[in-house]
Amino acid sequence: MTSPPAAPPSGPLNVPNILSLGRIALVPVFVWSAVARRPLAAFLVFSAAALTDFLDGLAARLLRQKTKLGLFLDPAADKLLMTAAFVVCSFPAVSRPNAVPAALTAVVIGRDLAIVIGAWVLYRAAAVKSFPPSLWGKISTICQMVCLFLVLLCNALGLRPAGLLSAAFLLTLAATLVSAGHYFRTGFVLGLARSRRGGGGKPTSRSGR
Is the peptide bond before 92 cis (omega within 30 degrees of 0)? Predict the structure, then answer.
C-alpha cells in the first residue's frame, strides 16, 4: 500500500496567509466606509473580508499549506475584523438605522480580553502552551459574525427589523457568555488542575482557547 504524497513545501506567503493579510487590509477600508456613512460599501467590504476567512481555511486544507505564521495570522485577522466591526456598529451616529447594543460589544470584547489574560496566566503558572479552539468558541464566533452581517445588511437596505435584530443580539450574547464560561472551566480551572497533577509545571494540559 503506497503512502500519500508528501505535502509540498509552503513558505510564509502562501495562499491562506495572503488571504488573511487581505482580510487585515480590508479592516481600515471597512471602518472608513462605515464612518463615512456608506452602509452599502461597509456591508460589501465586511462580506468580502468574512469570505476570506472561509477561503483561507479551505485553502489551507486543500493545498495543505499550514504554517506557524498562519496559526497566528488567521485568528488575529478575525479578531481585528470582529472587534472593529462591533465597535463601529455600536455608535448610532455611524451605524444607521440599526446599531449593536454597547453592552453586547462590551461583553464580546471583554470575553476576548479575558481569554488572552487567562492564556497568559496559564502559561506563566503552569507552562501551558497549547490553546486549541472549542466548539462553543466556534459557535460564539459564528453568532457574532451573523449578528454583524444582519446589522450591516439591514443598514444597507434601510430596514429596521427590530424583532429579528433583538433575537440576533440575545442569541449572540448568550453564545458569548456560554463560551466564556466554558473557556474558564475547561481552560483555566481544569487546565491548572491537570497541570498540577502532572507535576513540575510541565505543559501536560491544554486549555479551551
Answer: no
